[in-house]
Amino acid sequence: xxxxxxDRWDLFSSLEKRNFxxxxxRLLENEYKLIxxxxxxxxxxxxxxxxxxxxxxxxxxxxxGMIAWVTTRKTERKPSYxxxxxxxxxxxxxxxxxxxxxxxxxxxxxxxxxxxxxxVNRERDIETMVRLVKSAWAQGGMLSQAELCxxxxxxxxxxxxxxxxxxxxxxxxxLPLKGYILDQGSRPTHKGIILNLYEQxxxxxxxxxxxxxxxxxxxxxxxxxxxxxxxxxxxxxxxxIQKVTGLSRKVVNAYxxxxxxxxxxxxxxxxxxxx
Length: 275
Fold this sequence. Notes:
Elements: E1 2-3, E2 6-7, H1 8-12, H2 20-30, H3 38-55, E3 66-73, E4 90-96, H4 100-107, H5 114-138, E5 141-142, H6 145-152, H7 156-169, H8 178-181, H9 189-199, H10 204-211, H11 215-233, H12 238-245, H13 249-262, H14 266-269
Antiparallel strand pairs: 1-2, 3-4, 3-5
């Protein structure tokens, strides 16, 4: 636009180009010699800006006691063989590591014996663990046991004990941990919860919602369970079931334990577990 002071666009247009985006474009062109289509460079700049936004969040998003953390995105599916951890899709989340309730419990703690203090500390740790896991899931992420160890400064052995203790006291509340959701490891706990609900007549859709699993995963577990149960009823030994289904001994044993619990017929109870 022309005016008394000449071309105002020439005077002021350079001001908006003194930002991160234009500095990035100049860097790509001058230092990395990526000279070519400006459309391609703009697309690349868009991607880099998105990464910066994700991995370097604004401070006003963080409250006292919150921690910014990058974890596996919960849309990630069961990994194929050879897939590296760094290849998983990630998401930036904000975890309530310390809450005002945590501080109050420290301030108003009652004096007790060594054992009672240990119990209080353990219960507080388990409460924190559950809060972190469920908060991550609500924000589209899923934490691993290793991440919990780092966040809470506890050993892997201790964390596994906490998880086992929580699962024992909350049999129908499956923690949406990365290893459970991606079906990693040999522990059948999450499968057991799903199949127990299934045997109780709960609809697969409700099972998926209550256990924080995808409906496809729930259907897969049910299908495998029904297959194991059918082979067992035919008198097939444990080792034969493993070969036919391709499931591990621990998983087959877990499935058979559930089947015998809900279907304790004489025919089934007379069939021994065989290796």
